[in-house]
Amino acid sequence: MKKISHFIDGEIYVGSSPRESLVFDPNTGAVQATVSLANASDLEFAVRSAEKAQKSWARVNPQRRARVMFEFKRLLEENMHELAALLSSEHGKVIADSVGDVQRGLDVIEFACGVPHLTKGEATQGAGPGIDVYSIREPLGVVAGITPFNFPAMIPMWMFGPAIAAGNAFILKPSERDPSVPLRLAELMSEAGLPPGVLNVVQGDKETVEAILDHPIVQAVSFVGSSDIAQSVYVRGASNGKRVQAMGGAKNHGIVLPDADLDQTVSDLLGAAYGSAGERCMALPVVVPVGQDTAERLREKLVEAIGTLRVGVSTDTDAQFGPVVTSEHKKRVESYIDLGVEEGAELVVDGRGFNLQGHEDGFFIGPTLFDHVTADMKSDQDEIFGPVLQMVRATSLDQAIALPSMHQYGNGVCVFTRSGDMAREFVDRVKVGMVGVNVPIPVPVSYHSFGGWKRSGFGDLNQYGTDGIKFYTRTKTVTQRWPRTSNANENAFVMPTMK
Fold this sequence. Notes:
The structure is a single chain. The protein has 16 helices and 23 strands. It is globular. It is 38% helix and 21% strand. It is an alpha/beta fold. Helix 2 crosses helix 7, helix 6 (154-165) packs across helix 16 and helix 10 (262-274) packs across helix 11 (292-306). The protein folds into two domains: 2-248 and 456-478, Aldehyde Dehydrogenase, Chain A, domain 1 (3-Layer(aba) Sandwich); 253-437, Aldehyde Dehydrogenase, Chain A, domain 2 (3-Layer(aba) Sandwich), CATH 3.40.309.10.
């Protein structure tokens, strides 16, 4: 059986820990590999390797660091389909979706190629008599990223791309559910010319995460996962003096106004709610039609369209989505469908008990649709993270805006409308971090930044974009004077000013 281990100091490292976790093929339910779970000794080796490598890497000029990123970009493009197939085999998402996973990570690598410009400081000549002031952006040192199972290519590159380009060394702790792609990314970075130790992959679980958060040499931690864990990571990391950005869960709403193009809206909702089996923090699991007529027309079209969806194995090019990642996650999603029924929501389309012929042991759930869900239901308050779409009916635009604004999560939201005036009002008033107007999954492009509000994001800076560069660097400001002759200042004990 395949054994997956770590990547430390520029090579595969088996490690000294006897602990392992199972890696499944979600399409069949079979165990396909084991992955090592690091102990304190393994992490210490990675940290020391990173600490040593970072000192010299930081002295490499930004243009030459950018050349490594350019070469890594080329290698990603060259190995795109290999990475996508590997990703699908462990995650379960269809190949086309896995290609998108890699591509969105590659977009951030392209952004990081501009690091010579992105890390430039500022300067003021003549800020005072003979005084110049300038600022420098310096890397933090050794930093770390803890990434989830749902985007094993994109999210690691969100983190290590800007961090490494800015001169840091990076320790990546990926999800133990689909660990192979992050390992392969590290190999490609090495092939691109990255010195040994600058990027290390340490496989692990909660024990490894806690060791990273407590390690005194690790200066910053970036995290993406559930909100409860994100909050815990933020509190523990910050209490240890680290800079922390922790992205949490979501319950994104799609608001459908009466004037919306319903055919286009339904098409968008299907992809946003059911794509990747709903295992996206930017999925759209709640649809809010405004007005009863809108709700009835939307429901009719949704039921008809859901009936055409094809659920299949990852390699099925005709499938819209595949299985969820593990049997435990399948049980969790189905338990939320049970809960919705118990709470009194109307189960219009039931995805429980879905079986794919020839893959009866795979972790498949069919597309599910609820209607007459209310905001006080636990199934609406919680993130289900599966192929479940819930309809919450609103009687007015005010109520529709209030639903996502009052929710505990504030990651993403979308409004479907033909009215520019209504769209503008919605954007101005809704209390959510990322907003789409007729864009169902409003994930910002790589030169903007990704991040939600409320329990969807902990920390002051978002992922990637200029926020990513700021997160992985700190500012040093220099005030200098080069007097031509000695000019003792009798007011040297007075607070200096620039008069």
